[in-house]
Amino acid sequence: MAVLKGMLDSGLLPTRPAVIALIQTLAEKGDLKNLQALKNMLEDITKSIGISASLIANAIALAHTKNNDLDAAVEYLEPLLISGAQNPDQAVRNIAYLLRKVSEEGLEPALEKFGVMAERLASQFGIYRPVTDLFLQYVSADRVDDARSLIQRCGALVEEKRALARFMARSASKPGQAKKMETLLELIPEHLDTEAAYRYLLRCYELDGDVASVKAVYEKTKAKNIQLHELSLKSLAAFLKKVGEPVPFTEPPETFKFYVEKWRKRRLEAS
Questions:
Q1: What is the pLDDT of residue 6?
Q2: Buried b vs exposed e over 241-271: b needs ≥16 C-beta within 10 Å?
Q3: What is the C-alpha separation between 42 and 21, in angstroms, rounded?
């Protein structure tokens, strides 16, 4: 904290990873005093260094949780989420970090408490991002029955398309995440961008080096008449050739860079 204060007093900006690490460390320790001081210190530079209001709010709620005061955590967080939904300038909208931490640490009473809050926000205020975060945390933790039950109670959470898309993209960025994609396709197939979902699922299995699953998913896309983007086909062809398997389609002729740019352009146009 002293080093950060010195930097700010000198007109220097701290790095985003350093600030995130400090926020998370203070939250883990339940250090509300320093978290609040840090929040005040960062107030004018959060946008400059890419620190979201949601992360700080989640951290403060986690600190209350660490201090065994769940009521205080909810009392602090819930009004911010309501305000964030009504006022884009006060953008405390998600509770993904908070839910992930309490789930990973096995703090089941906290997860239940925040789950009740999320469902209340959905049913009473029509605010669905927190309950979508809860659904995706259940998916991440392989709590499929809980996820299925939640979708039955709060079906409108599937309208949080951007949150679902970001979750799929993150899942396809590192190995060992294919189960999450399979679960989403099992639970809410009609609410996903089918082409994107299967593209990400293929990528998950490619990262795992799971040849049999890659081939099975590709056959499924053909059976379902899902048109894969050229970038996916290029990646799939490279994977199959690397493991010594035949490529069962005509490989797109351009470079990866060409198809990445084409895909990005299409996404921008769609948004």
A1: 82
A2: eeeeeeeeeeebeeeeeebeeeeeeeeeeee
A3: 14
Q: Specify the pLDDT at position 61.
A: 97
Ranges of the chain with pLDDT below 70: 88-90, 270-271
- pLDDT, tens only, 78-109: 999 998 877 766 688 899 999 999 999 999 99
Q: What is the largest CA-CA distance in the chain?
A: 62
Residue 204 neighbours by CB under 8 Å, 6+ apart: 171, 172, 175, 177, 178, 181
- pTM, two decimal places: 0.89
Please spell the DSSP secondary structure of 131-170, one letter per residue: HHHHHHHHHHTT-HHHHHHHHHH-GGGGG-HHHHHHHHHH
* Length of the chain as a residue count: 271
Does residue 175 contact residue 167 with C-beta atoms inside 8 Å? no
User: Cα–Cα–Cα angle for 43, 160, 103, nearest 5°?
Assistant: 70
Placement of tokens 């309501």 in the chain? 82
pLDDT at 84: 82
The SS3 assignment for 20 reads helix
- Show Cβ contacts of residue 265 under 8 Å, excluding neighbours closer than 6 positions: none
